[in-house]
């Protein structure tokens, strides 16, 4: 079946889905041969809402049938058997498909064809390894949607930090931020180091509902991240945020209080981990005493190092809030003491002293 492609309104709220035909079946081609540790694939397998098993078994109402090709989850023996659907897509023999890229994209131009930074399969004619860039150049223009999974693929991540010799970058940097897929979608960026499992699954499911003709395009922020997942800061969803308001800061990592002064960047980082947790709603950096190091942000890691030092501006904001926080903490403490007393009429004496006085009593 065919899909009438709509335009993607980046940064806007989704409008009502237009009535249109959708796909009954779609293939997900997942390449994790970018500059990466494969941690996003491993994390993705922990998703539970929905689980990858629910997705591929067709247990989610309204979604097209999904054929997933990921090297970790593939039942094939690998080699050419695993590569077959990818080669078919390059030849234009597979449509529609969603291309998922894991890992940052190295710059092949800086080595002028002399070798490769990372590869995926071999050229059947020459036997030489095929660089990741070769696959992206041929698959991305044919893909109905292109999704970058993890911070390396979205913004370059650790492999793209200052001083790296590979010229690594994010997928949108490589394809262009004005790139549009066959489904008229820009690159969909789902950052995280590694990806938070449910964040990726929610995004993929939304894209699949869009492919089925049952939903509008996913709303994305200016950095092409899903807006409903990355529209708030870590601090806004953090259980420790009230301590910041009261200027009650942790001095070490064993404290349950706000960790801004021991290196947490939560007040300025777009991420929902405090709300979502990590697996089954449990865990997540600040939830378990870890500082936020900004791994979902385009400037990661350079802009957030050294990780355990107090963030730039943290000292000023903490100083400004200290008088207010101290006063509020003291006043709340007084009120707390008052409210932790039982009413005086709670006693076992013969006289009722609660003030009970029904109007009908003569």
From TrEMBL:
Residues 230-307 form the Cytochrome-c3 hydrogenase C-terminal domain. This is Hydrogenase expression protein HypE. It comes from the Bacteria. The keyword Transmembrane helix does not apply. Residues 37-205 form the NADH:ubiquinone oxidoreductase-like 20kDa subunit domain. Belongs to the [NiFe]/[NiFeSe] hydrogenase small subunit family. The keyword Oxidoreductase applies. Pfam families: NiFe_hyd_SSU_C, Oxidored_q6. Keywords: 4Fe-4S, Iron, Iron-sulfur, Metal-binding, Oxidoreductase, Signal. Heterodimer of a large and a small subunit. Its cofactor is [4Fe-4S] cluster. SUPFAM superfamilies: HydA/Nqo6-like (SSF56770). It is found in: Cell envelope.
